[in-house]
Design a protein that fits this description.
It is a single chain. By secondary structure, the protein is of the alpha+beta class. The chain folds into two domains: 43 residues; 134 residues, Rieske Iron-sulfur Protein. The chain is built from four helices and twelve strands, in the order E-E-H-E-H-E-E-H-H-E-E-E-E-E-E-E. Strand 8 and strand 9 form a beta hairpin. The N terminus is likely disordered.
Length: 217
């Protein structure tokens, strides 16, 4: 065998290159196997990519939005202006917020039920009522004739402050905490407080309807 390296004078070392082996060309069978491996890997990569995109889409659909909208803290507007619209000066007409899916309503009751403390109702003199009927989840509009929130699906009815009045609903409307920050009404739609039980009546002025129902009983 030829020496791969020889030592010269002093400490200098000279390395002699070893010629590379010549590669043999692949046989047709080997080429076929290589093509199958390539295709298998390509299909696997495509399938994994599809699953990744599908998973991300599913999470974005199921996970609450963190940058705004329902499920986050929403600034509803100037507190004084909102109070003019929903309070005595505005005829106690609720204000709907489509982004947060809630009704802002005036409140001047006793706040005896614990839920009123949880949502700061007596402190801010207003409430953010979740528009979803607690019976089967239909969207509940406000009836200007009766002054009640009336579910068009099965006839459940709620008072202006969200307490149960009639129909198959098991309790009053659920609601969100409200705070006043820098003169703005801020609603935390990420925290749903369960509505007061049947039989709760904390504001006598709106205990009974003011007129005809919009949804017949």
């Amino acid at each position: 065998m030829a020496e791969a390296a020889s030592r010269g004078s002093g400490d200098n070392v000279t390395v002699q290159g070893v010629p590379e082996r010549k590669r043999k060309p692949l046989t047709p069978d080997q080429l076929a196997v290589s093509r199958r491996q390539f295709l298998n890997r390509a299909w696997t990569a495509t399938f994994v990519t599809f699953l990744g995109f599908f998973g991300m889409s599913s999470l974005s659909f199921l996970w609450p939005k963190l940058t705004g909208g329902f499920g986050t803290t929403i600034t509803a507007g100037d507190a004084k202006e909102i109070m003019k619209q929903i309070g005595p000066d505005g005829g106690f007409k609720p204000l709907f917020n489509p982004e947060g899916r809630f009704w802002l309503t005036y409140y001047d009751g006793t706040g005896d039920s614990p839920v009123y403390v949880a949502v700061n109702a007596t402190e801010v003199k207003m409430q953010a009522l979740y528009r979803k009927c607690v019976h089967l989840g239909c969207s509940v509009p406000h009836c200007s004739k009766s002054g009640l929130f009336e579910c068009p699906c099965h006839g459940s009815k709620y008072r202006l402050h969200g307490e149960y009045f009639g129909g198959p609903a098991p309790r009053g409307l659920d609601r969100f905490p409200v705070t006043i920050e820098g003169g703005q009404v801020v609603v935390d739609t990420g925290t749903v407080e369960v509505g007061p039980p049947r039989g709760t009546d904390t504001w006598g002025e709106f205990a009974e309807p003011k007129g005809d129902y919009c949804v017949p009983t």
